[in-house]
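Hi team,

Filling in the usual template for the complex we talked about on Friday. All components are listed, including any nucleic acid strands or ligand strings, so the model treats them as one assembly.

SUBMITTER: L.P.
PURPOSE: interface mapping
COMPONENTS: two
RESIDUES: 563
SEQUENCES:
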Amino acid sequence: MYNNENVILNQCPNTGKDSLNAISIRDLNVFADKTQILKSLNIDIPKHKITVILGPSGCGKTTLLKSMNRLTDLYKALEVSGQICIHGEDILLSHKDMSALRQKTGLLSQKPYPLPVSLYKNITYGPKLKGIKNKKILDKIVTRQLKEVGLWEEVKDRLNASPDCLSIGQQQRLCLARGLAVKPSIILADEPTSALDPTSSQIIEKQFMKIKKTYTIVLVTHVVRQAMRLADYVVFMHNGEIIETGGVEIFKNPKTDQMKEYLINGN
Amino acid sequence: MGRFRYSYNFITGKWMLVTLAVILCLPVIIGISLGIRSADLLHDNGLIDLLFSSAWAPSKGEFGFLPFILSSLYVTIIAFVLAAPVCLLAAMYITQFSKPRMMKIMYPVADVMAGIPSVIYGMWGIIVIIPFVRDVLAPLFNVHTTGYSILSGGIVLAVMCIPYMLNMLIESFKTVPQGLRESALALGATHWQMVKHVVVRKSFPGILSAFGLGITKAFGETLAVMMVVGNVVQFSLNPFDPAYPLPALIANNFGEMMSIPMYDSALMFAALILLVVILIINLFFRYFIYRSKKIR
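RESULT (copied from the run log):
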């Protein structure tokens, strides 16, 4: 007989083109050896919005973010189960083309990690992996992406220089440009301003506000003020669990004691 | 109590400077003393003759070091060619592909290998490598050999260099930040592309230093090579022939050097050549490390 219930369980929630959600996470559990880092999380991340994952250090925010592009594979001790649907496809199922999967998302880490090659090659690395070899197209991509993150004017004369000659804030924008060059639909940002000075942080935040029209942004942060400035949708985590989710109004009316306490301490 | 603390502070700082100065002076002192002792030979025979002549007859006053220099280089190159790829791939596997437990097993193994005295490597070479070269490798190439050969020396040396090169390679691969590796993967690189484009490139200076260390280690190793290389004064391109590297020359003849005139000076000169070659190798690698740190 046809088991209807099972089919519904295994089906991906709609995260396709017509859906309002870019990512749907169902019953996500992550274990490291025997400790549970993430405890059956269910989240829908809205499209073309900034979703802020807020919470204290060590609550599993980064693990959640890394499981969204399967960087958790790097850590052999981690065991991930559940469902993460992006574009109507469960990315946790064994995947043949991990490169294509990861190119759907762009990653921005806590510290900028420019590749040990020139500025130009940093941007073209992703597109080249996609198979783009035409020099003219690559030139165009470099120009477009550097302009998109507002770095073009600052570096256009030294595209063949090492990223070491950039300030850390410029490096972080380079990393953003590099991530955008593979044309992802989602940006995963893991406390992207935590190593930056306030001015550089502000530039990155402004970029996010600007590009959210075309990208879905998932931002991990422990800074309440940053969350308030940027968030369209908030996921508050504590100890591997989701405590509260909602729009910006939850900053004014937190329902749970944990969130209330965090907001008070955070301000 | 506090009255002398500034003096102590001053004295401690100066002491450290003195110890550092001693260390910095050591190679210079060694070089100068070897130079002084070999001056007689240099004066009599001339530098060009000593380095490029292959006539070796100490009792007739003929001292041509070319066969020894070439033997040393040949054995070293064979050792390097055998050991470098093995170490590189093993270090890559341990740091990039295997489970972390592998590294915990590898460190003690490498440390024990590094700690084994060279005489044991020499004995092992005699009982294992020499029969292997004589009975297995040589018939493959239709060559007849006693087994005491350049190739045996190279193999034993390769085994001896492995722990040093491997440890250094592992260390330099480990310094590549996790975040950088993740960035490359997130951009769509496969694991191997990530290793190739990011890990190898980022730790390239470290790879060069490891190789440099391995080569100098192989070039200067004395006892184990001496036991398997045959010690015949000649130079042949055939790796199944015996040879006579510089360190072996010094160690073998040190006891009897007083009986022949100029022989002691000749051995000092051999030591000086060793020192200079190692200096040149080091400078060479330093230069390439410096070059590789600049972005391409």
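MY TAKE: The longest strand of chain A covers residues 21-32. The CA atoms of residues 67 and 80 of chain A lie 8 Å apart.

Thanks, L.
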